[in-house]
Amino acid sequence: MEQKSEVRKENIVLELEDIHTYYGESYVIQGLSLYVEQGETVCILGRNGVGKTTTLRSIMGLTPPRSGLIRIKGEESTGWPPHKVTSRGVAYVPAERHIFPGLSVEENLKLAERAPTEGDGWDVARVYKYFPALAERRKQDGGTLSGGEQQMLTIGRGLMGNPRIMLLDEPSQGLAPVLVGMVVDVVRTLCQEHGLTLLLVEQNLRIALKLAERHYLMSSKGKVERVVTTQEVLEDEEIVKKHLAV
């Protein structure tokens, strides 16, 4: 596992230790370990099919690991059902978005509403403040939104659960560059102003470098080839190209 000698254990809010995850008989994650500290943004970088999304699904209990440990805020959560993981302040924003067609934007948001465990919580008005385009379409069928608007709605819906930790899967997928920039700006603001801890999966290196402080370079089967800081990548992008060919 990555060396944590300089990290205080109480600062770690999400930790995976030697997890092994399967889809049926397909052995997808083979011994993955990683951690995320409170208020940190960390990215998993890698090509399609290496196990990035499966890592997030393992954390959420959607595809539980067969062995290994997952801890949320120091509490072992391995094998928990998704609703219990969510109740501990973890939100999952999938790449597929899973907007509920037939329900309005506002109804999609309210479905995910959960009372905050501390401080001021997220409600519809607060989501609209960060995503004014959603306010303009609050009564529109969520399934008819553009790709960028659906991404905003999915993130907004995640925030309605008042999470402290967000798992964000490929936020740039299928979006025009101008919309990608808008989503990145909002996510960055959320992390900086609200202390949101973020574990991000992304293939777009430029976006990963804008958002994250550390990067797990995943090569295959959940194998982490190297852990690097954004500064290290900015100084030598060959680090990523060499390990991942991105």
Describe this structure as you would to a colleague.
- The protein is α/β, with parallel strands linked by helices.
- Helices cover 35% and strands 26% of the residues.
- It contains ten helices and ten strands.
- Strands 6-7-8-3-9-10 form a six-stranded mixed β-sheet, sandwiched between helices. The chain has a four-stranded antiparallel β-sheet with strand order 2-1-4-5, covered by helices on one side.
- Helix 3 runs parallel beside helix 6 (147-159).
- It is globular, with a radius of gyration of 17 Å.
- The protein starts with 11 loop residues before the first strand and ends with a helix.
Quick structural summary:
By secondary structure, the protein is α/β, with parallel strands linked by helices. Helix content is 35%, strand content 26%. The chain has a six-stranded mixed β-sheet, sandwiched between helices.
SSE order and pairing:
Blueprint: E1 12-23, E2 26-37, E3 41-45, H1 52-60, E4 67-72, E5 75-76, H2 82-87, E6 90-93, H3 105-111, H4 124-130, H5 132-136, H6 147-159, E7 165-169, H7 177-194, E8 197-202, H8 205-211, E9 214-218, E10 224-229, H9 230-235, H10 238-244
Parallel strand pairs: 3-8, 3-9, 6-7, 7-8
Antiparallel strand pairs: 1-2, 1-4, 4-5, 9-10
Helix pairs in contact: 3-6
